[in-house]
Design a protein that fits this description.
The protein is of the alpha/beta class. It has one domain: Alpha/beta knot. It has seven helices and nine strands. A nine-stranded mixed β-sheet has the order 4-5-3-2-1-8-6-9-7. Strand 4 (102-105) and strand 5 form a beta hairpin. Helix 2 packs parallel to helix 7 (210-231).
Length: 232
């Protein structure tokens, strides 16, 4: 099972009318492109993939559970409407539903955290796998805080990831700016410093768009699966 988490700064408001007129906001369009590259094949849906969207400023987490997904098409319109329905689910929840997942549509769940530390705690409990944060580039000065304090996280090449299908991939939607993600890592370090031992920063300088990063990971996993089948 492959897990992707898109790190998004904040939600952009839109409605069904915007979608019907073809006026999907650029951020939502990018997210839909990531949904498509995570799941859509020419003939099927990748059931072995999960995609999570974390909206940092809103403290909202949306989960697309591959094994349960239904009604997911390859076009941006249907994807944008499914995403909007999940976001609206949070707005209409009762006070009793502040904890745990709310089901939006088959295979799509949403939850809201009261503060970022609770999301980090969820990530700490739910994820026992190695974490690979894929960025366009990494500058040493950005990591000065970690090197002086924790000696983590590590910077590694993509080829060094041994088990792609057991790796939790975090990809910022705005790959040109690392500051928000670096600040998030500082929060992780303050809450659960041991968690940084499982974090690798992976620069992919030639692959800029987040959806292309997901496509690249899926391609490499498919390639390894073919090699395993050939050996058998």
């Amino acid at each position: 099972m492959v897990n992707f988490l898109l790190f998004v700064e904040k939600i952009i408001e839109y409605d069904k009318g915007d979608v019907d007129k073809g006026e999907i906001p650029l951020l939502i369009y990018k997210i839909c492109s990531c949904i498509r590259e995570t799941y859509c094949l020419s003939y099927a849906i990748r059931k072995e993939n999960n995609l999570l969207l974390y909206f940092k400023e809103n403290l909202i987490l949306i989960k697309f559970q591959g094994t349960e997904l239904k009604h997911l098409s390859s076009d941006e319109r249907s994807q944008a409407l499914l995403l909007k329905k999940a976001l609206d689910k949070i707005d209409t929840r009762s006070k009793k539903d502040t904890d745990g997942w709310l089901k939006s549509t088959p295979g799509i769940y949403v939850r809201k955290f009261n503060r970022e530390a609770l999301f980090i705690f969820w990530l700490y409990l739910e994820n026992s796998k190695n974490i690979a944060i894929i960025l366009n580039s990494i500058f040493p000065l950005e990591l000065n805080y970690f090197y002086n304090t924790f000696n983590f996280p590590n910077i590694a090449k993509f080829k060094s990831i041994e088990n792609l299908s057991q790796t939790f991939f975090i990809i910022p939607i705005n790959a040109s700016n690392n500051s928000s993600l670096i600040n998030f890592l500082r929060s992780v370090a303050e809450s659960f410093p041991s968690m940084l031992e499982r974090v690798n920063l992976i620069p992919l300088r030639k692959i800029k768009a987040p959806e292309d990063k997901i496509l690249y990971v899926n391609f490499q996993i498919d390639k390894k699966n073919v090699q395993i089948k050939d050996k058998n």
